[in-house]
Design brief:
The complex is a heterodimer of chains A (988) and B (91). Chain A is mainly beta and 988 residues long. Among the domains of chain A are: 16-288, Methylamine Dehydrogenase, Chain H (7 Propeller), CATH 2.130.10; 776-800 and 850-987, 7 Propeller (Methylamine Dehydrogenase, Chain H); 802-848. Classes of the chains: A mainly beta (988), B mainly alpha (91).
Chain lengths: 988, 91
């Protein structure tokens, strides 16, 4: 058996992000390269719209573990070093012409896989780009020397080893030493003594070390220069700019402290990481820095460091000569906790969030002034902590956000919201920033305007007045018995002087020549010159025009009875009928001209579909005018037809011509047309919907794209080197035309029922339109109501407080303050503080939920509408009960009712082997099952009873009118009772 | 090639392997050493795979950076201190 899979949505998590000038653009236009697990992406920032654009997405068929941007001395372009699971170091360069990453070097050093001793996890570069260090979690470190050859190509040396046995590595960074020998700093732990000491003393005694490795460029080898034990274990290193730009050295981010260290006479500068004032957090919990970013200009530098709860601090250093005298920390703002932070020179901060959507902020100020500044010079003692008050965003302005579905805990697929197309309900996120996201296959459409029209419109076009115009001038709407012309300006208003005949429906209209307009209606063709002179061509008596095709120089009309009349614009700007008329056996159903190739005046082909199930390509070459060139037979009559040019990859050479045919049975045929002989080749079919398919040419990313309408609307467009045919996640459209104005460069004006809409597709290349509903804790499991559009969701967080406990804790804190007051004035003050404490509730979605200690659980069960996301019912479990599994059970005793059974653990402890039962906090681990009655119309559930089980419940399943419950190594069958579930049998 | 020193040669090769690949077993390996190696390999695997790291972070409701930090810390002495060496073990 062979199973193939197709990825609908690639990874949306960002594990690594680096900024730099990768495509060699001017200096201020920095780009971001992100590692998304198995793919690399290049992101560019559109500074005008403030949107993030994905320029390139490349699968690497491996796992990206680390990324590093580096440039050679005096270079202007950054290279990308990739540490992966391939056992190789790979150097990439971005090629903006081909929009792909090109491999410059690939040096093998070990086995594949993410292994303990195969380098790839850490990457560090000398700031001058002279050397790279790549390291493993344990033991191995390799240094590569980078240089230029005579042709200025990047060269890489053979690896130099800096291995050390029994040594774990926590972090690695290249120190800025100017042009002295490249030096790298690593946070290491040597476990050799601990491994040989049965008493366990050595493990406690051994300290983490900050180790410096120096690459001697003269001798071509690496020496372990110096190792300094650290009192607090660290997890991150930040390189401080050196040379002429700063004091050099490193900042070690330790638990609770950040410490500046350097070689030489420099004393350690140490500053505690500030904590939030009056937070309900577990007091024993240490502070940890999770992400950092450095900003450096010619005369200043600063760092942004982010703590676990998302608080960002700005770190600056005060220097005296070469020595650092003071380190200052200032609370900046709070953003989602990040895997990586990137500060762009243009003044933006990109936050690649650990969980949930990635955010882009504009840096409006650098957080100067105000309080909440802490300094190493304030003389914090060993156990002193600094406190600050978090605030809403002050220095950052949110600009854009990238959807992320990571981490995805559970999902269901189906047409639950009753929309005729399946939706994916996904549980996404962690803690207070969780969501239920509803994914619908389709492009997200942004709506610019919706306006009601009198009556039911049939068709719409946009027309320019002059060939020089950048934007469209008129919107022409055709009704059953009238035509309405609207001018496009700051507002859209009815136009009276356009020259279009208002009293008849229109079949087609366009600009023709340089500055005249043409309107085709059933009785004739109206040619409106720029000076408002009007030339009319009348259709023969008792014959009507049924279809038409127009471009800048040519007009073709089909008369009823299958007759084709062809016109061409002559040099004086008048329309001349071709001497011959062509008669077909059947009525003409649709027509289109091919696009005018560069350097030519006229279209070369006319494609026309006839009701006898055929499409013909007709030559418009003067030598064989109106001669049929080729025919494509169809399974049913065509409805609409469109010829589109597709330029080659490199933009050079002759474009290929694609013939698109929309059929009445709802299929789309796509063919390639030979642009010399007109032969039709290479047919592809796609079913679009139940209604006849109409095709409309629109603009997407500067290229022709096709909007197809059927029972759903689709967009066929070229993006990132391939064609995408994607449904639109939007109201059904009946007719459309491209729309270009100064507010909207690549829009579409469309008719939907009796409204005129101006819309645009922005998130190209994305398969799903996402709708988000908020949840307060990590959602774990989802179940669907059997008949109604609603869902049951259980959410559980470890190390969290329930709302009830949070209230109690706040109260306790407030009481403590009140009790501490000794006299009357203090008591008044204390009461005020206490009231503040009781009412102080930070928005957990922004600031995160307070962290409780290990083994504390909070859980909730909710009933959510699949359509509106509204919570119909919500049930919070008591503290330390964690909902683990969920099932809808139909008991045979109550055939008309559906029960929701939620299996829980009580007092469960993660990694229980690490907690001693003798611990004072130890409580017996048990389990329980909650039973709820789910109302038949899906608007509520009601708590029935709670059943104790001896162990945490891992699984529940509906089984022959009873519930099958699994816990520990037991499987037990329960039937429903009045006061609890009744155990019926159990496996032995 | 049957060289006279082949027996030692194999031994030397084995020693070379053991020094090159941390965790390679040997005849005198005891239970504790083996288990410790398994644990260290597992922790290194868990912290190296981004998805695995995320998974553990979600379960423990910790940040990914702390999960990673905890996992490396657990590599130091994953199974407690080594057992007392029996005097007869040392040859």
């Amino acid at each position: 058996m062979h199973l193939y899979n197709l990825t609908l949505q690639g990874q949306t998590a960002i594990n690594q992000a680096i900024q730099g000038n990768f495509s060699g653009l001017p200096k201020s236009q920095q780009e971001i390269v992100v590692g998304r697990g198995s793919a690399l992406e290049l992101l560019q920032l559109d500074t005008v719209t403030g949107k993030i654009k994905v320029m390139c997405h490349q699968d690497i068929f491996g796992i990206v573990r680390s990324l590093l941007a580096f440039r050679l001395t005096a270079g202007t372009r950054d290279f990308i070093a990739v540490g992966s699971d391939s056992g190789r170091i790979v150097i990439l360069q971005y090629n903006p012409e081909k929009t792909c990453f090109e491999r410059l070097h690939q040096e093998t050093f070990g086995k594949t896989g993410c292994r303990r001793i195969v380098p790839g996890h850490y990457l560090a570069g000398d700031p001058r780009g002279r050397a790279l260090m790549i390291g493993a979690v344990e033991r191995q470190k390799l240094v590569y020397i980078m240089n230029r050859d005579a042709e200025a190509h990047l060269t890489i040396s053979s690896p130099l080893e800096a291995h050390k046995q029994h040594t774990l590595c926590y972090a690695m960074v290249g120190i800025d030493v100017g042009f002295e020998n490249p030096t790298f700093a690593c946070l290491e732990f040597d476990y050799e003594d601990a491994d040989n000491d049965p008493t366990g003393e050595a493990a406690k005694r051994t300290q983490q070390t900050l180790t410096f490795y120096e690459l001697d460029l003269g001798l071509n080898h690496v020496v372990r220069k110096y190792a300094e034990p650290l009192t607090d274990p660290g997890n991150l290193l930040i390189a401080v700019p050196g040379g002429n730009e700063g004091p050099s050295g490193v900042i070690v981010c330790c638990e609770n402290y950040i410490v500046y260290k350097n070689l030489g006479d420099q004393p350690d500068i140490r500053c505690p990481i500030p904590r939030r004032r009056n937070e309900l957090d577990d007091a024993d919990r240490t502070m940890l820095i999770i992400a950092t970013a450095t900003h450096k200009t010619k005369n200043m530098f600063f760092f942004l460091i982010q703590a676990e709860n998302g608080d960002i601090f700005k770190v600056t250093l005060e220097t005296d000569e070469d020595l650092v005298t003071e380190m200052k920390l200032k609370y900046f703002d709070t953003v989602p906790p990040a895997n990586a932070l990137c500060i762009l020179k243009a003044g933006f901060l990109f936050v690649a969030a650990e969980f949930g959507n990635h955010e882009l902020y504009q840096i409006a100020s650098l957080g100067e002034g105000g309080d909440d500044e802490f300094s190493s010079a304030m003389g914090f003692g060993e156990n002193d902590a600094a406190f600050f008050e978090p605030h809403e965003l002050r220095s950052l302005i949110p600009i854009d956000s990238m959807d992320s579905l990571s981490p995805l805990t559970d999902a269901v697929i189906g047409d639950i919201a009753r929309e005729d197309a399946a939706q994916l309900f996904t549980l996404v996120g962690r803690g207070a920033r969780s969501h239920m996201k509803v994914l619908r296959n389709g492009l997200e459409i942004s709506e610019m305007a919706v306006s009601d029209l009198p009556g039911n419109p049939n068709a719409v076009w946009t027309v320019k007045k002059n060939i020089e115009d950048q934007y469209d001038s008129y919107i022409v709407v055709s009704f059953v018995n009238a035509t309405l012309t609207l001018t496009i300006g700051d507002t859209v208003e009815e136009a009276s002087d356009s020259g279009f005949l208002p009293t008849t429906p229109t079949i087609g209209c366009s600009m023709i020549g340089d500055d005249s307009l043409v309107q085709i209606y059933s009785e004739g063709i109206r040619h409106i010159r720029a000076d408002k002179r009007i030339n009319e061509w009348k259709a023969p008596p008792r014959r009507q025009i049924v279809k038409c095709a127009v471009n800048r120089r040519q007009v073709a009309v089909a008369l009823s009875g299958g007759e084709l009349v062809y016109f061409e614009l002559d040099l004086n700007g008048t329309l001349n009928e071709f001497t011959e008329r062509k008669l077909f056996n059947a009525d003409i159903a649709c027509m289109t001209f091919s696009e005018i190739s560069e350097g030519e005046l006229n279209s070369r082909f006319l494609a026309l579909g006839t009701v006898d199930n055929a499409v013909r390509i007709i030559s418009l070459d003067p030598n064989d005018m109106l001669m049929p060139l080729s025919t494509q037979n169809l399974p049913c009559p065509p409805e609409s037809i469109l010829l589109i040019d597709t330029p080659n990859e490199d933009g050079k050479g002759v474009a290929s011509v694609h013939l698109n045919i929309g059929l009445q049975n709802g299929c789309l045929f796509r063919n390639t047309v030979d642009n010399v002989t007109g032969a039709i080749m290479d047919t592809r079919t796609r079913y679009l919907g139940t209604r006849p398919v109409k095709l409309f040419k629109v603009q997407v990313q500067g290229r022709s794209a096709i909007l197809c309408t059927s029972s759903r609307s689709w967009l066929l467009y070229h993006f990132q080197r391939r064609f995408h045919l994607t449904p639109l996640s939007y109201a059904n459209l009946e007719y459309a035309a491209s729309f270009c104005s100064n507010q909207c460069a690549e829009g579409v004006v469309a008719i939907s029922a009796s409204t005129l809409r101006i819309i645009a597709a922005e998130k190209l290349g994305v398969a799903f339109n996402v709708q988000s509903f908020e949840h307060k804790m990590t959602p774990r499991r989802i179940a669907v109501h059997p008949t109604m559009p609603c869902l049951v969701v259980i959410e559980t967080d470890h190390a969290a407080y329930t709302e009830v406990t949070k209230g109690l804790k706040r109260n306790q804190m407030a009481q403590d303050v009140e009790e501490m007051a000794s006299d009357e004035t203090e008591a008044a003050l204390a009461r005020e503080i206490a009231t503040n404490l009781r009412e102080r509730k930070l928005d957990e979605r922004v600031f995160g939920a307070p962290r409780a200690g290990y083994g504390k659980w909070a859980s909730a069960i909710s009933l959510v509408s699949a359509i509106t996301g509204e919570k119909h019912s919500h049930f919070e479990l008591p503290q330390n009960e964690n909902a683990k599994c969920l099932a809808l059970v139909q008991f045979s005793k109550h055939p008309d009712a559906v029960m929701v059974l939620v299996g829980c653990g009580v007092n469960e402890i993660l990694n229980s082997s690490e907690v001693e039962p003798s611990d004072s906090n130890y409580r017996p681990v048990r389990g329980c099952v909650y039973t709820f009655h789910l109302s038949p119309n899906g608007d509520r559930f009601d708590f029935l009873h709670r059943t104790e089980t001896p162990l945490p419940v891992g699984a529940i399943h509906d089984f022959r009118g009873m519930a099958l419950v699994g816990f520990g190594k037991f499987l037990r069958m329960y039937d429903i009772g009045q006061k609890k579930l009744l155990a019926k049998c159990e496996n032995k | 090639m049957a060289l006279p020193g082949e027996r030692f040669h194999v031994l030397a090769q084995l020693e070379h392997l053991q020094s090159k690949y941390t965790g390679t077993g040997h005849a005198d390996m005891n239970r504790h050493e083996w288990v410790v190696n398994q644990h260290r390999d597992t922790r290194a695997f868990q912290m190296s795979h981004p998805g695995m790291n995320t998974y553990i972070a979600v379960v423990e409701n910790e940040s990914r950076a702390r999960t990673r930090f905890n996992l490396i810390n657990r590599m130091i002495q994953p199974c407690g201190p080594p057992p007392e060496k029996h005097p007869l073990d040392d040859a």
